[in-house]
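Researcher: Structure prediction, please.
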Amino acid sequence: MDPEVRKRTLRLITYGLYVLTAADGEEIAAGTINWLSQASFQPPLVMVGIKRDSHLHALIERTGKFAVNILGAGQKEIASAFFRPTQVAEGKLNGYSFERGPRTGAPLLVDLPAWFEAQVTDAVRRGDHTVFVAEVIEAGLRDPEARPLVMWDTGWFYGG
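Model: Predicted structure follows.
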């Protein structure tokens, strides 16, 4: 297989961008992710690929819970803020206001159009990422008219 063709082909898979958060008490981790998909209607399941050497992975593995904050089309700057290490200061997460999720305690970014919380049901550990399968246990919609931020529109790539 030609590695360049493989990379370019896999980069044609469409992805949204999300800020995934997890918490264990006052310990918080957050990061921009894109390997996320709904996997079932009943029960409502999602699957997410998380890099195994990340703080997010460690907290999800420890608590079995996380929150997904869905970025809007004009929120590339917020997405880029979560490529940096997690910092909590003055009631903000990497510079953005948040509240704690009602079911997981994970941060919910108040400027983003939608969010959901999830409870892990299964994990598949292969390669450099773990795929967590999780049931959606709570959801919130702040802006029903928002369009999601998609990877292709940013010029960024994480895949291939």
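Model: Residues 45 and 135 are 4 Å apart (CA to CA).
Researcher: Thanks, that helps.
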